[in-house]
Amino acid sequence: MRFSVKYMPTALFSLKDSNSTNSGAKALFLPSPYAIKMAILNQAITIGGDLVQLEGKKSLYFSYIRDAQISFFIEDNSYFSVSNSFVKILKPAREGGGFGQTVAFREYLYLSKPLEIIFETQKAEQKEYLQKYLHKINYFGKRGCFFQFLEYSATPNEANVKPFASEKNLFGILQEYDDFDEKALFENVSNFSSKTTKRKKEVLVLPLKNINSSKSFSLFKKD
Question: What percent of the chain has a predicted confidence (pLDDT) above 90?
Fold first, then answer.
C-alpha cells in the first residue's frame, strides 16, 4: 500500500551526515528516513499524546512508524544549491566547565521544488496512523529547517532516488542515509534513554549532477 506526501522547503535545509564530527559536517541533500520517522514520533507525542502507547516493547503504534518503507522522488529541473559556510558554535570547555566558542564547517541547502516522500505500508491502519501526523510536520533536520505540507497522493510517482548497487548503471550523487533498525524499540531512539541507538544505513543514489561550483557553493540539478 503506497502513498506519498509532498513538502515545499521554505527555509535553508541542513542535516549533517551521522558519521561527521560536530566541527566538520557535510550535509545530506534530503531528510533521512531516520529524521522523517523522528519527526513523526515528535508529532505523535506532542500533538497526539501517544507517549505511553509508543513506549511498550510490543507497541503497535511504534511499529507503524518503524516499519514504514520510505523512498523519494525528485522532480525534473529541481535545483539543489549547497552553500559552504563557517559558523561559530559552542562546545564544552576543556577546563573549568561551561562552554567555549569554536568555528565549524556547515553546509546549507536551497531546494527549488517540492520534495515527494513515498511511503509503503502493510496495513490500512498503518497508513491512517502515519497520515494522522505527517501533515502536521513543519521541519526536518535542525530546528528552523522549515517545510510546508502541500498534499497527500494515493498515486505516487515511482521513486527515482535508488539504493546503490554496483551491478546497476546508476548515475548521480552517492550519500549514506540512516533509518530505524528493524528491531529498534522506542527506547533505542529516545533522547532520554540510556539504551544504544539502533540504526541501519543505506547508500542512496540521487539523480543529480553538478552544473556549477565555486569555493563558496555548489549547484546541482535534476534534469
Answer: 72
Q: Is 96 exposed, middle or buried (0-12, 13-18, 19+ CB in 10 A)?
A: exposed
**C-alpha grid cell, residue 143:** 530546528
With a cut of 70, list the residues of the chain below it in pLDDT: none
The DSSP annotation for 143-175 comes to TT-BEEEEEEESSPPPP-SEE--TTS---SEEE
Question: Into how many domains does the chain fold?
Answer: 1
- 3-state DSSP assignment of residue 65: helix
Determine how many CB atoms are found less than 10 A away from the CB of residue 85.
14
Quick check: 54 and 34 in contact, CB under 8 A?
no
Find the domain containing 83 and state its range.
Answer: 2-222
Asked if residues 184 and 142 have their Cβ atoms less than 8 Å apart, the reply is no
* Residue 49: CATH number of its domain: 3.30.70
C-alpha cell at 121: 505500508
- Structure confidence by residue, pLDDT tens digits, 144-177: 899 999 999 999 999 999 999 877 888 999 999 9
pTM over 0.85: yes
Spatial contact of 41 and 33, defined as CB atoms under 8 Å apart: no
**Torsion sign (Cα): 120, 52, 139, 152:** positive
